[in-house]
Amino acid sequence: MIKSIKQVIIGDLAFQKTITPHGEKNEVAGSAFYCAIAASIITQLSNVGVIARIGEDFDLAPLQKRGIDTQGIAVISGGQTARFIHTENADRTRNFVANFGVAATVDLSQYPDEYKTATWVHLSTAEPAKQLKWINHLRQKMPHVTISADAFEKFAKESPEPSYKVMQAVDLFFLNEEELAWLQKSYPRLTISKAVILKKGENGAEYIDPNYSVTVSSPKVKVVDTTGAGETLATVYMILKNNGATIESALKQAVQLASKEVTAFGIEHLSPLNLNST
User: Among residues 139, 171, 144, 173, which one has the least CA distance to residue 156?
Assistant: First the structure.
């Protein structure tokens, strides 16, 4: 029986060189990849589809074996999958260099009819101009759907205006303290008018909306590679909340899993879990 898609992730699939004080590694990456793997470990709740653009050099089998629906992924003949270099410095600052390849193009027609059953669409970390195109499209074609988006330091710093527009246009916005600081630098009067989840690294995360807030602490772990931790948090929160969990419960489990993610390179070291959705 074909499963009904309940959550959709839109973002990049890529090949990445990750450099940290603990070493370096070449790996499959991209925000959509991290989100998809995170989704797959919530075995009984996934029903997740992915929309991305790749070249013929990218192997979809690892995602398909984990139960992720890949019919929204366009394989571009003769094109090159995105290539990233992600550097984490000893002071926890990060540098990001990208050759987006075929992922530089947004093709709104890529959204499959089969994904119109989704009740939540998450725009994982990407250039805000691309996120805005998807937001406008989804608001027109699927006005019922909940839309969330994730920020990124590089874009909050270099493209504050479109980043701010994304924040205002979605139902839930994920960002960390550095990204918030960059947006507040450009918009000193910035206030929380919609729901946000503020990622605080080793200090956990905080959900904030105009009427409610809750802070969740993070377990103490040895940090090896933070790449993908934000995507893990966002995806786990999305799926649990979209399947009936309370805000606090979903955020607690999302923080716990994101904390496990940072203890090794990549994300595929995370084991399948049966998380409580209440």
Answer: 173
Q: Where are the alpha helices (DSSP H) in the chain?
A: 31-40, 61-65, 128-141, 153-158, 160-169, 177-186, 229-242, 247-261
For 212, phi and psi rounded to 5 degrees? -160, 150
Q: Which residues pair with 16 in a beta bridge?
A: 27, 84
State the pLDDT at residue 225: 52
8 Å CB contact between 261 and 234: no
225/269 Cα distance (integer angstroms): 12
Alpha carbon distance 155, 98 (integer Å): 12
Percent of the chain's residues with pLDDT above 90: 60
Q: Taking a C-beta distance cutoff of 8 angstroms, is the pair 55, 123 a contact?
A: no
From CA 197, how far away is CA 50, in angstroms rounded? 22
